[in-house]
UniProtKB/TrEMBL annotation:
It comes from Vibrio agarivorans. It catalyses: chorismate = 4-hydroxybenzoate + pyruvate. SUPFAM superfamilies: Chorismate lyase-like. Signal peptide: none annotated. Pathway: Cofactor biosynthesis; ubiquinone biosynthesis. The lineage of its organism: Bacteria, Pseudomonadati, Pseudomonadota, Gammaproteobacteria, Vibrionales. The keyword Protein biosynthesis does not apply. GO terms for molecular function: chorismate lyase activity. Keywords: Cytoplasm, Lyase, Pyruvate, Ubiquinone biosynthesis. The gene is ubiC. This is Probable chorismate pyruvate-lyase. Its main location: cytoplasm.
């Protein structure tokens, strides 16, 4: 990666989140990527031969470690903090930061605490009861490059998960004619 993961994580944590209703999208393709209601992992998989996950962190944290804008979307309990880089054909495409409350980790068909290097979307969207709300989008400049991001709450079997995704410079969202 061109910059350190720490710099990208900092940009994600400091993001000024906006409603898609007020955010100014560059074009309809960008709007489609940022407002995708299905699995981002499944969408990214269409643009490469091999989608992989580099697991950066996966450990339990206290609710006092959450930013106020995060705690508004989740119950006040311990949670799993999962940080990953999604890579398409070994190119870093998306930095993901996921907060999974303890009560949301174990479901009928999945155990998100044991996700490891499997893309979260591959597991979560296997559930028949999945929906997305609280979608927010944003942009930031990192090392002179405009980067896009989105954050949303996923409800899996009526249990919340907060997912933030920063599209890194090589991500297909920035490519011309980026339709699969």
């Amino acid at each position: 990666m061109e910059l350190s993961v720490t710099e990208y994580l900092q940009a994600l944590r400091e993001m000024h989140w906006q409603s898609p209703k007020v955010f100014v999208f560059k074009d309809s393709l960008t709007r489609n990527w940022l407002t995708e209601q299905g699995s981002l992992s499944l969408l990214l998989e269409k643009y490469c031969n091999d989608l992989t996950v580099e697991l950066l962190q996966s450990d339990m944290k206290s609710p006092t470690d959450l930013a106020l804008s995060e705690s508004e979307h989740l119950p006040k309990e311990d949670y799993l903090l999962r940080k990953v880089i999604l890579k398409g054909d070994q190119q870093p495409w998306v930095l993901g930061r996921t907060l999974i409350p303890q009560s949301s980790m174990i479901g009928e068909t999945h155990n998100l605490a044991d996700q490891g290097e499997i893309p979260l979307g591959f597991t979560v969207f296997k559930s028949t009861k999945v929906r997305r709300d609280s979608l927010q989008v944003g942009e930031t400049v990192v090392a002179g490059k405009l980067l896009l991001a989105r954050r949303s709450r996923l409800w899996v079997d009526e249990r919340p998960i907060l997912v933030a995704e920063l599209f890194l410079p090589n991500a297909p969202i920035y490519a011309q004619g980026n339709q699969a």
